Amino acid sequence: MKTRALAVPAPTPQRLTVDLAASEGPVLLGANGALYGLSDDGVPGDAVLEPLKITSVTQKPEGGAQHPGGDALTVSRSFFRNGGGEILVMMQDVHAEWPYEDLGIDDYLTKVDKVVKEVAAHPDSDRFVYIPFNEPDQIWYQLEVADQAQYEANRDRFLRDWRTVYRRIRAIDPDARIAGPNEAGYHPRLMRDFLAFARRENVLPQVITWHELSSDSLRDFQAHHDDYRSLECEAGIAPLRINIDEYGNRRDLSVPGQLVQWVSMFERNKVYANTAYWDAAGSLNGHVVRTGIPNGGWWFFRWYAGLTGDTVKVSPPQADAVDTLQGLASLDTTRRQAQVLLGGGEGDCDVVVRDVPGSVFGRTVGVTVAEAAWSGYEGQHASPLVLARTKVPVAEDGSVTVPLRGMHRMSAYRIVLIPGGRGTPSTPSVPWTASYEAEAAAVTDGEVRTQGTVENAGGYAASGTQDVGALDRPTSKVDFTVTVPRVGTYDLAVLYGNQSGGPATQRLSVDGGDPVTVTYPSTENWTYRARKELPIHLSAGSHLLTLAKGSAEVTLDRIDLTARTGEPSASYEATLADIDGSPSYDYSSSGGVGTGALVLGPGDRAVFDVYAPRDAYYTVVPRASATVELALHGETVTAAPGAPLRLYLAAGNNRVTVTAQHCALRSLDVSGDGSTAGTLCHEAASAVLAGGAELVDSAFASTGSRIGRLGNSPSSTAEFTVEAPSSGRHLLVVHYAHNDRRDNGHAYNTDITSRTADITVGDAAPVRVTFKNTWSRDDYWTVSVPVELSQGPNKVTFANATAWAPDIDRIELGRVVDRP
To answer: For residues 678 and 496, what is the distance between their CA atoms, to the nearest angstrom?
Structure first.
């Protein structure tokens, strides 16, 4: 069942200690990057990219042959406009083969010239870093050899080439920043020799890079880091910036409880780090679903991006250990907030926060606890569940103890401490929930398989490290015995994988009754988990839930049952929102969300990340002391205190900005299942097609057909006529599909490609929109685009003069603010 926080202590809980008096320096936010985390301008979408405040990404040179997407200059447009820091250019990814074809240093220098000239010509060239060599310990130079004489010969060739390429880069771009040596692992033998040579020859990199790609890195990185710093001192080199530009295994990505362990050790040491690229580009390496939908891993990184002030010392139960409870924490004395992020452990834990400064917090603190659970790589995750809001007195020794009970190993948890004001915070609604592993159920004609363990770190994450596959025979099924406390509607969530080549189905029955069909969208592969959600009605007591083979094979990992307690709702705390300007923080009252109020004045902004399960209308209420203005999708609306607004939200994350002349803002409350009443819907068949675009039969399209063969010619267009009841800002939602791929011969990467379309509304200029691969041509995803409509008929035209546009099932338009 779900974690219950602040419950009766268990006999021997683990202990994680936070010392607010032991500063580690300003929060760096260095460990939030990704190798090939971006594939195109717009993939991932702005609304999931901006909140993470990413400090570095690693991408390939423009036009590089290693992968079909992820070109550094192309993705720089979205990366920089969303506040991104710097882009490391993996220069050898200009090559097509893996390992890279070795055609000699002279051939490589011609490629270096082209890459550097293109980057140097970029208006933001100072925000790029060149990585001349990638994993030279294994590629071209074989620096891992045990034989010392052979090592020295290989080393000398590498160092000569490093010097040659370094000087070539600087000859073209004198201000270039260069990173290296970029080995696949940390090797002190080479690092010592490299630093001495680079210092002597004046070819020292500005950024030191290596990779941490083993589960053992969770144990060994601290020693690697400390050894490197000692080698710097030995060589007489001032401390250089470190970027671990590839870290983590498949089993770590998307899993909040694993990510905590990696990020805590990098942040503690104030180094930068980018997650490794094992699968498809454009998802921040498994943390963004589709184009703009958060999963549990995304929410952990969103929490990480919300740390402010200084990080402080955290003492876990075991330091430098694999798969154990770890954490990081921050103290912001200006905002009067302390935050603790922890995870990776199971069971019970006491979080002891020491040296709580009375001058900042007083004698009573407000405590809020929330959980970001694992929802799979492709499983959407609503805003993290608040488990507890309470007020706790500070003990005589200056400490506060926060007990967590029933922690899940794959989850991350956030604890927020603020000064305790008057009143009592509202008790959060924590619904009953229970989880059931597929491998523990009764399996007929299927196979239990082990995934993503320490021994198989390259395997994909699985709940309980096992799943059930090979459910491809007519009699294949999994019977789950479940028990629920009361009669009512429950939300059933199935963690699954579907690599069948299109939507697959299973037959769901309750206690042997008439089955209903469950349809599962495609996933990258059988073990790349997604999450299918549907409601079921159950009476109190035990039941047999059966998932039996339908139209194609599906792998099953786990099911969750959660009691439906009413209309979905979430409260987003204003004092934890992103801010611009200089608002103040008022903790005089602990009412409502229990985290006080953000006091906005002229020039101040609060930006909230608001989740929506689908493209639809939701009720949004600002809990404020005065009138505020909300901005969403380019539209602004004025709201009186507590007045509900009906706003159209995009599926996934939405950035909502609140401003005011003078206002104490406590929260932004969002509720509703997502209503489509009032939206304008136009199916594929209603479009006027030209230039070869045509209707194509599709069993999974909403009305049985889609628009295909659109684009690849200036004359190929699809034109919809939209009758708008009133003028104003609308969100155009495009339901589309395509499955373009380009096999670059690298088995461990899925080389999908995106399509684009130029969308023209009325007389406005066309807008180029990117559409990510949907894993099959029969799976329909959505991309939303803000547009202006005039009252009456509006032409909405899709085109692409030079390449194929995506297939289109239908379009929907909702006015951003549903005005009465």
So the answer is: 34
Distance between CA 247 and CA 211 in Å, rounded? 6
Distance from the Cα of residue 630 to its chain's centroid: 25
| CA–CA separation, 78 and 67 (whole Å) | 19
- φ and ψ at residue 107, rounded to 5 degrees: -65, -40
pLDDT at 46: 98
pLDDT band, residue 11 (cuts 50/70/90): low
**Angle (deg, nearest 10), helices 105-120 and 148-172:** 40
Percentage of residues in the chain having pLDDT higher than 70: 99
The residue type found at 576 is L
Average pLDDT, the chain: 97
The predicted-structure confidence for 378-387, as pLDDT tens digits, reads as follows 999 999 999 9
Pick the range with the lowest mean pLDDT from 9-13, 466-470, 534-538: 9-13
Look up the pTM and report it: 0.97
**Strand duo 272-275 + 241-247: pairing:** parallel
Cα(76)–Cα(78) distance, rounded to whole angstroms?
Answer: 6
User: How does strand 86-90 pair with strand 288-289?
Assistant: unpaired
Q: Rounded to whole angstroms, how far apart are CA atoms 33 and 273?
A: 6
How far apart, in whole angstroms, are the C-alpha atoms of residue 252 and residue 376? 11
One-letter identity of residue 710: L
CA 16 vs CA 265, 366, 585: distances in Å: 15, 19, 28
DSSP designation for 107: H
If you average pLDDT over residues 75-82, what whole number do you get? 98
Q: Is the pLDDT of residue 5 over 70?
A: no
Two tokens at 287?
A: 């943390």
**Which residue, among 354, 356, 324, 355, has the nearest Cα to 342 in the 3D structure?**
324
CA-CA distance, 47 to 759, in Å (whole number)?
20
Classify the C-alpha dihedral 453-458-459-463 as positive or negative: positive
Q: Are 5 and 39 in contact (CB under 8 A)?
A: no
Residue ranges with strand state E in 194-298: 207-212, 241-247, 272-275, 288-289, 293-294
- Return the axis-axis angle of helices 217-235 and 188-200, rounded to nearest 10°: 30
**Would you say 663 and 705 are in contact if contact means Cβ atoms under 8 Å apart?**
no
pLDDT band at 745 (very low <50, low <70, confident <90, very high): confident
Q: Scanning the structure block, which residue is given the tokens 């260095």?
A: 30
Q: Which residues pair with 694 in a beta bridge?
A: 708
At 629-659, the pLDDT tens digits run: 999 999 999 999 999 999 999 999 999 999 9
Q: How far is CA 687 from CA 53, 621, 678, 755, 810, in A?
A: 40, 37, 20, 20, 9
* Cβ neighbours, 10 Å, residue 78: 20
Backbone torsion region of residue 336, taken as left when φ is above 0, otherwise alpha when ψ lies between -120 and 50, otherwise beta? left
Report whether 738 contacts 807 (CB < 8 A): yes
- Closest alpha carbon to 311 in 353, 268, 352: 268
Q: How far apart are CA 614 and CA 647, in angstroms?
A: 13
Q: What pairs with residue 413 in β-bridges?
A: 342, 371
Q: What local confidence, expressed as pLDDT, does residue 744 receive?
A: 78
Beta bridge partners of 5: 404
Token pair in block for residue 658? 């609140």
510 token code pair: 């309750």
